[in-house]
Design brief:
Helices cover 44% and strands 19% of the residues. β1 and β2 form a beta hairpin. It has one domain (2-71). The chain is α+β, with helices and mostly antiparallel strands. Strands 2-1-3 form a three-stranded antiparallel beta sheet, covered by helices on one side.
């Protein structure tokens, strides 16, 4: 009897664990990068915000075409 109760408890625990999704199951937030001259627009994960801002600053300073890109 004890073995059957333990099996039921373990089964219930596994069912509860596997039925719960991850805490961050919502959609990822994104940011949009837009470039003025080429009209290029692309979307990246918002977790990359600071790296993308730095990348845009370097690109805007060094590109030979005078194009500037912004993060919005």
């Amino acid at each position: 009897m004890k073995g059957r109760v333990a099996l039921i408890l373990v089964g219930a625990a596994l069912t509860a664990i596997t039925s719960v999704g991850p805490a961050s199951a919502g959609p990822n937030q994104t940011i949009t990068i837009s470039c003025d001259t080429s009209g290029q627009t692309y979307v990246v994960d918002a977790n990359a915000l600071y790296g993308q801002i730095t990348s845009n600053e370097v690109y805007n300073e060094r590109n030979p075409f005078g194009e500037t890109c912004t993060v919005s």
